[in-house]
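Weekly structure sync, notes
Attendees: PL (lead), two postdocs, one rotation student
Agenda item 3: pending single-chain targets
PL asked that the sequence for the first pending target be pasted directly into the notes so everyone works from the same version. It is reproduced below exactly as submitted, 159 residues in total.
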Amino acid sequence: VTIPLPFTPVPITGQTFAVLLTGAVLGSRRGAASMALYVAQGLAGLPVFAGGKAGPAVLLGPTGGYLIGFIVAAFVTGWLAEHGWDRRPLTTALAMVLGNVVIYLFGVSWLAAFVGVERAPLLGLVPFLPGDLLKILFATLALPGAWALVRRANASELV
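Predicted structure, written out during the meeting:
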């Protein structure tokens, strides 16, 4: 789902939710690898980016930094989960916040090259904070269910 906003080239999507949850469940290396595969698919022409877009122009455009940030954020969130940050709701939420900060660092920095340093936070950060806080809450709440699915899948492999 992509919700374009008329005042910014950055749409509202569920991507950050998926990135954070993927990192926490798959771990640092596999989480980052899965996000790198996602970006590679989009670069190869599969319409996987927000709004069904694809190709190198997306990565080189105003939102490309967010895509690179997805890879690093999945690694960071996964690393934190591997070190026990996924065991309690508060530390899980903090891991998700830190992953989101990584996405913003890459995304807003890249966006600044297109809209200027002063406007980048106003166009690529501020409008998304309320929604991203909700996505962080949902990812934090979804993680125990994701772990239950992983345990169930692992248990069925043992049979």
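Discussion points:
- Strands lie at 2-3, 12-13.
- The chain has a mean pLDDT of 92.
Action: rotation student to compare against the earlier draft before next sync.
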